[in-house]
Specification:
Blueprint: E1 14-17, H1 26-40, H2 50-69, H3 75-87, H4 95-113, H5 123-132, E2 136-141, H6 145-155, E3 163-166, H7 167-170, H8 177-187, E4 195-199, H9 202-211, E5 215-219, E6 227-229, E7 234-236, H10 239-245
Helix pairs in contact: 1-2, 1-4, 2-3, 3-4, 5-10
């Protein structure tokens, strides 16, 4: 039997889950896709090793997504610049040639990424448990509509999801409160206290949910403690611990 100290006190009606690196193992899948792209697109013509390509891509991509979440750059700029940035130090052609190459590589990468099946440990078990215990489940993601649905289908988790809200579809990114309000409207449950978000990013997922009045669980695989609560949100280090945290 669960202790009151380790169970969320009010049972949420809707459990919202971030997609990338909460359910889908985005980092592992992305690295596989980037390496496949390196080979298929012949990126070795410019960048001497696949490791350099992956490392440089990831460094620029993290910063670009941070700026995108804050509304500082557009989705189109993010998609092209994340390809241009790692190539720029090595590419000897014109700026227009670099732009043309980046615009070719981005959809190619997304197509490969959509075919990767890697899930975070415990993802299916969590989704099955939520379904068996009568929770409504939703996806709340800043990812691109073009690829997120395909990733869910490939990973086999679509049947477990009741509702999906993508920032790319409605034009509002987490952590802006508007996306959380939109999500509540979509479910018909307008009491923020009956919504819970689980995500791996403090600045976007958790800060936004807390500001919207939702319960929030920060999924930090590096946390030394299985479950903690700091007064504003919970932290778990595995999806199995999230099951222990939720009321039956």
């Amino acid at each position: 039997m669960k202790s009151e100290k380790t169970v969320i006190p009010v049972r949420p009606k809707v459990v919202w889950l971030d997609l990338d690196d909460t359910l889908i193992d985005f980092h592992a899948n992305s690295r596989l896709a980037l390496r496949q792209l390196y080979e298929e697109a012949g990126i070795s013509r410019w960048i001497p090793s696949a490791d350099t390509w992956v490392d440089d891509y990831e460094k620029s991509n993290v910063e670009l997504w941070r700026r995108y979440a804050l509304g500082e750059i557009s989705r189109d700029y993010l998609r092209i610049e994340r390809m241009r940035a790692p190539l720029r130090p090595y590419f000897s052609g014109s700026d227009s040639g670099l732009d043309e190459l980046a615009m070719k590589l981005d959809p190619w990468y997304l197509d490969i990424l959509a075919m990767q099946k890697g899930l975070v440990d415990g993802a299916v078990e969590l989704l099955s448990w939520l379904r068996e215990h009568g929770y409504r489940t939703g996806i709340l993601s800043n990812g691109f509509e073009q690829v997120q649905y395909r990733k869910m289908d490939t990973a086999g988790i679509t049947p477990y999801i009741d509702i999906t809200v993508l920032s790319d579809h409605i034009g509002i990114n987490k952590p802006a409160i508007g996306i959380y309000r939109h999500a509540m409207e979509m479910t018909g449950e307008r009491n923020p206290g009956r919504h819970l978000l689980v995500g791996d990013n403090l600045a976007t997922d958790i800060a936004g949910a807390v500001n919207a009045g939702w319960d929030a669980v920060y999924f930090d695989r590096n946390s030394p403690a299985p479950v903690t609560f700091n007064g504003s949100y919970y932290t778990v280090n595995s999806l199995g611990e999230l099951i222990r945290l939720l009321p039956d």
